[in-house]
Amino acid sequence: QVQLVESGGGSVQAGGSLRLSCSRYSYSGDLCMGWFRQASGKEREGVAATYSGGLGTYYADSVKGRFTISQDNVKNTVYLKMNSLKPEDTAMYYCAARWGPCGVWYPDRVNYWGQGTQVTVSS
What we know:
The protein is mainly beta. The chain has strands spanning 3-7, 10-13, 18-25, 31-38, 45-51, 57-59, 67-72, 77-82, 91-99, 112-113, 117-122. Strand 5 and strand 6 form a beta hairpin.
């Protein structure tokens, strides 16, 4: 069982920045790890993902050029740096992990979820 523990998030004004962190426990092998978000009344959508064994990263079109996902394989931690935040980025952000390379980053492909952390961007 892989445990995901998130930190970061909070409230920021439009144009500001935040960084989310997600640390995994109980497994140190290769995983695809990343983030989903779910705004009120909307479906959960993939934001970004990266595979600990390399093979590139995934970004949703809506965050390309603004968000950066990175990983520290020694700390087993993935980071999501969010710049130029917009009110439409407001959502609950969930760390997620799945076995193997990332492939298609859909919620139904996820094996493990974090507890979620709220990001609120005010205009």
